[in-house]
Design goal:
The chain is of the alpha+beta class. The chain has three domains: 144 residues, Creatinase/prolidase N-terminal domain (Creatine Amidinohydrolase, Chain A, domain 1, 3-Layer(aba) Sandwich), CATH 3.40.350.10; 135 residues, Creatine Amidinohydrolase, Chain A, domain 1; 291 residues, Creatine Amidinohydrolase (Alpha-Beta Complex), CATH 3.90.230.10. 34% of the residues lie in helices and 20% in strands. It has a six-stranded mixed beta sheet with strand order 4-3-2-1-5-6, with helices on both faces.
């Protein structure tokens, strides 16, 4: 019997003893974080699936795991021999989690979930469905976590201040703006549990989640006070203690739920139900009337100020130089048959570590050769990796965390002969990325208005990629942030955000052919004002990323004249912005790589 089945059966035995019929596990920590520390990887412990987004539901006989299209190939591989049924979210004929619960949880049964690790919106919906079915939800136990042998300890990283020359605004000023914003929604208070929002408003950074400079915390803001809850060992340390001068009160992290259960705001409290936990909702509603709305911190954080924009432009050029140096090494110096995916990741990670102000990677580098690149979030490990060959393509998705900002860039490199289909796919992906970056659009557009620009060259071929085209990017914060994004599919559960001047967003179409190849070309782009006419204010994007698109993969016969014009213009600017940072040999090579098609 494999270890996953042993763990599931052990949990089932304890469920039976306690009279529980169903057990639900999310991928969340107590803060709805996209990435979590090892302590909170309970769902991974019971499934063996290492992807970031999944939900596990099991009863005494069966187990089901839902995940999205980014992870289908990976999940099929990692769930093999676990007896867990993969539920491919969004695919035809696959019920959603709530639909499945409605159809399968019967009268008198009990479904268990740790209420701290499920968002309030989903938790409330499940509670309603169970009530309609004559079943009940139990949220006050972490049975799965209690049975986890050798569970890692909770994170306990240090916290440091982000000076104003990087943040561009003092914490007290941000606090005043946040109060003004929630006041516009007739709220007198705000509960924050989202770690990057708290890090932004306090101008503090931490290390409690790998590659995400955040720290375990909660924050309650009302018109008179701002109470920050942090772990005990930080209470009297600078810079946490220094926040008192900016209008904050500091309390122990473990006291948060007891405080919340007795807290009474002088007016309504704003909570974003899709990110606060079900436990937060339950405690906050004991003595308060709540307003469900997006955190004002999320929207304010997304619009970068002048200092942040200046720094981002500078650091993205230096970060792009790292990718260019890696590309030169891969194509000119590396002995491909002796180079592994791990070597590629180590090479590019090492180049970034030499940049001034480097603090960490922005995520674990994705270096996938050949068919491995068809898994969008593939990560080579010492137990599972491939060596390159002088043929095919190598995809590298990587980024850094710097004092001057967060970067994210993907390039697919041609390392030998490729098929005509691969060249077609590569060329169309490049065309889509540059078409979106070249967009002119009226103010008021959201990412759903713009997604077609990147996707159309592929849709014309009957090809799609099972993810969004773009995500917001933090400033020395999470590499993925909202509220804006670029995707085509409407969802009533996702609040769409208008593009504002100062927002940064990724632009990353791709092609993923299982068993063959994966291609992604990604830049980060900055939204800014364009011309204003009698028809309104027009907006446009500006590239922050400056890395050549491998000309060895481009077939000009697959491209329209406008596509070729865009590639040539981008390559010309890439050389102008980065060549000064390269050696003479690297400059000569880059000049050849960026010459007009």
């Amino acid at each position: 019997m494999n270890k996953i089945l042993e763990r599931l059966n052990k949990l089932r035995a304890e469920m039976s003893k306690s009279g529980f019929d169903w057990y639900l596990m999310t991928s969340d920590d107590y803060h709805s974080s996209e990435y979590v520390s090892d302590h909170f990887k309970t769902r991974e412990y019971y499934t063996g699936f290492t992807g970031d987004n999944a939900v596990l539901l099991l009863d005494k006989d069966n187990a089901y795991m839902w995940t999205d299209g980014r992870f289908f190939i990976q999940a099929e591989k990692e769930l093999k021999d676990t007896t867990i049924t993969l539920m491919k979210s969004g695919e035809e004929g696959v019920p959603t989690l709530t639909e499945f619960i409605r159809e399968n949880v019967k009268t008198g049964e009990t479904l268990v979930v740790d209420a701290r690790t499920i968002n309030a919106k989903l938790g409330k919906r499940i509670e309603e469905i169970l009530s309609e079915n004559g079943a009940k939800l139990k949220g006050d136990t972490d049975l799965a976590g209690d049975l986890w042998t050798d569970r890692p300890a909770p994170p306990s990283g240090d916290v440091f201040d982000l000076p104003v020359e990087y943040s561009g605004e003092l914490a007290g000023s941000k606090l005043a703006r946040v109060r003004e914003e929630f006041g516009k929604k007739n709220a007198s208070g705000l509960i924050l549990s989202k770690l990057d929002d708290i890090a932004w408003i306090t101008n503090l950074r931490g290390s409690d989640i790998l590659h995400n400079p955040v720290f375990l915390s909660y924050l309650i803001i009302d018109k008179r006070d701002a109470v920050l809850f942090v772990q005990d060992y930080l209470l009297n340390k600078e810079p946490v203690a220094g926040l008192k001068a900016e209008g904050f009160t500091v309390m122990p992290y473990d006291s948060f739920f007891d405080f919340l259960a007795t807290y009474r705001c002088e007016g309504k409290i704003l909570v974003e139900k899709s990110v606060v936990s079900y436990e937060v909702l339950e405690k906050a509603s004991l003595n308060n009337e709540l307003i469900d709305s997006i955190n004002p911190t999320t929207s304010l954080k997304a619009v970068k100020n002048e200092t942040e924009i200046k720094n981002l432009k500078e650091i993205n050029i230096l970060d792009s130089v790292c990718v260019i140096k890696f590309m030169y090494w891969l194509k000119k110096e590396a002995d491909l048959e002796k180079v592994s995916e791990l070597d590629c990741a180590a090479k590019i990670d090492g180049l970034r570590s030499e940049v001034e102000g480097f603090k960490d990677l922005s995520f674990a580098t994705i270096a996938g050769y050949g068919a491995n690149a068809a898994m969008m979030h593939y990560e080579a490990t010492p137990e599972n990796f491939s060596y390159l060959k002088p043929e095919g393509m190598m995809l590298v998705d990587s980024g850094g965390q710097y004092l001057k900002g967060t970067t994210d860039v993907t390039r697919t490199f041609i390392v030998g002969p490729i098929s005509d289909d691969m060249k077609l796919h590569f060329s169309k992906v490049a065309a889509g990325m540059l078409a979106l970056a070249d967009a002119k659009f009226l103010y008021g557009c959201t990412g759903r208005n713009l997604d077609i620009l990147a996707r159309e060259p592929l849709w014309e071929l009957g090809i799609d990629y099972k993810c969004g085209t773009g995500h917001g990017v933090g400033y020395f914060l999470n590499v993925h942030e909202g509220p804006h994004g670029i995707r085509w599919k409407y969802s009533k559960d996702v609040e769409e955000a208008v593009f504002e001047e100062g927002m940064t967003v990724s632009d990353e179409p791709g092609v993923y052919v299982e068993g063959s190849h994966g291609i992604r070309t990604e830049n980060v782009i900055l939204c800014k004002r364009s011309v204003k006419t009698s028809d309104g204010q027009f907006m446009e994007f500006e590239h922050l990323t400056w890395v050549p698109i491998d000309r060895d993969g481009i077939d000009v016969n697959c491209l329209e004249p406008k596509d070729i014009e865009r590639i040539n213009k981008y390559h010309k600017e890439t050389y102008e912005k980065t060549s000064r940072y390269l050696s003479e040999e690297e400059r000569k090579w880059l000049l050849e790589q960026t010459k007009p098609l």
